[in-house]
Amino acid sequence: MSTKHAHPGVPVVAGAIAGGIEMCSIWPMEMIKTNLQLGTMKSHYNGMLAGFRYHIATDGVLSLYRGLAPVLVGSLPKAGLRFGAFDYIKRLLADKDGKSSTMRNLAAGLSAGALEAVLVTTPTETIKTKLIDSNSGMIRGIQNIVRTQGIGGLYQGLSATVLKQASNTGLRFMWFTEYKARVPGLLERQGIAYSQLSEGQHALVSFVGGMTAGIFSTFGNNPFDVMKTKMQGLEGKRYANTWDCATTIFRRDGFKGFYSGVVPRLGRVIPGQGIIFMSYDTISRVVSKYFDDNEISVSIAVKSNA
User: Gene3D superfamilies under this entry (predicted)?
Assistant: First the structure.
């Protein structure tokens, strides 16, 4: 992304906060999307709006946040790791002049996504999916997983999650970085100096960029998302591996089976990615200013004592 960070902790802090904001904003849609992919609520609803009506009428508004707790706990380090790793790897892959490219941004995003999947996403997503599928509480759900499947049960569907998360992150960061690199020129051609954008205009640019990045990545990797969800569900043990899951889906539902839940996923991803990228850019500027101000204060203090 275009924001220059004077301190390496800025992407991590900004990413973690932005991830928490995004998760709280879009969780009801994520919960319904997961149920649609699992097929556990087929007899009750088959769409996003119908899902909202069913859960609110049956268990109240708070039921829309079932399974949020473990995911929210995991979303903070997950998003911090994602943004921090991308920023760090992008710097490593930059040329001698510090410049990156489309393919280098894609490679940095793929690497950051894979790292995130192994360290954080797989266990938290497994817990999330099983809690939604079983309607149990967080502590009891984790105890059931460990008791029946061992610690390895938390890493069910690891390969599918790595494929999904790496492609997700790679496509999104590649799109968003290219988008932010081209928007200044567009605004200048329209007679608006990018450097003079207000905070509100900065936020709007990032929000639109995040939404379009979400659309791009969703159509690119929804098959991986479907496989991940099925392998991490309560019936995930029926699949020998990711390839077995893929062939089973294709044999049973055809190519369209890989795009199960794509509409509700878009309904969650589009606003979610708009929120997280807008939040990240806004928080980055605030946190960067904080670090810069502190460095200036320290520098002045050192000179005064010299």
Answer: Mitochondrial carrier domain
